[in-house]
Amino acid sequence: MAEKFSKFRDPGTGIQVFLTPVSTRTTILLPILTLLGIVRCVLALVAYAVYFIAPSVGVRLGLVALGYWRVSPDYRGKVVGRVVVANHSSWIDLLLLSALYPGAVFVQPVRNDAQRAKGKVNAVSANTRMTGVNDPNLAIIGYALLPLHHALHYVGDLPPTTLPKMFSDIDSAVKSVRRPVVVFPEVVTSNNRALLHFDSALVPNGDVVVVSIKYASPSPAAPSSVSAPFQPAWKHALKLLFTSPVRNVTVKATMGREDVGGVLAGLGRWKRTAIDWTAKREFLDLVQARTKKT
Predict the structure, then answer these.
(1) Which pTM value belongs to this model?
(2) Name one GO biological process term (predicted).
(3) pLDDT tens, 187-236?
(4) Residue 33: inside a domain, yes or no?
(5) Is position 230 within any domain?
(6) Going along the chain, which residue ranges are E strands?
């Protein structure tokens, strides 16, 4: 398995960009956390119901239920704007940004339906680590704006191949609304260890608010906040609800205009990799193939 997934290790930084961080130990506090989790599940259900009446209140309650009691960004300088560019590793990113920017909509890229070239999925040689990973057959062909509850459906997977009310470029999408707009230039989720390669076409022109979201490393009492492949958000949420009631996340924000990827990397002290969003198709293929064998 390690050899198969090693091809998704960036050769420049040595970082594996997709595998979900895990803790191999267990905690003796599990019975207590389970009892507390029942109360937190009730709060999460209340938050879900409240969201459709008062979205901002519902999002805040949901974050508290998950263990994020306080979301207080570290602002670097004067931060003013409605277009937000952030790194992306979990569906929780959307909740955090919705709490910070009430009423925000999310830019959802739409891809073509190109078939992957044959013979790539089993290419596991370390000598061809980057061959066939960044897939030239895949491309972004449009952008849609989605509210939080719709955008959550697409987290962790490849972009969809069609959505209603698509825009041909990201600037047109951003200009079509007056609400806060959130953009994830990585397109897909990574594992919160480094940044995937940014395509300049995925970053709006002009001044943007750059936000770095960095989750604490997993521990026996606190599983990773990073989305796992093929794991529905509700299953991940249950795992978080029945573990530690206090979770840590570091949110930093500043302004950016040019080289937004560089600004984000400096803000969160992220390493930048040469692997882009298209590599996730092959990664998901390998995960799915391995799951069928077990």
Answers:
(1) 0.90
(2) lipid metabolic process
(3) 999 999 999 998 778 899 999 999 999 999 998 888 899 998 888 999 99
(4) no
(5) no
(6) 74-75, 83-86, 105-111, 140-146, 181-183, 208-215, 249-256
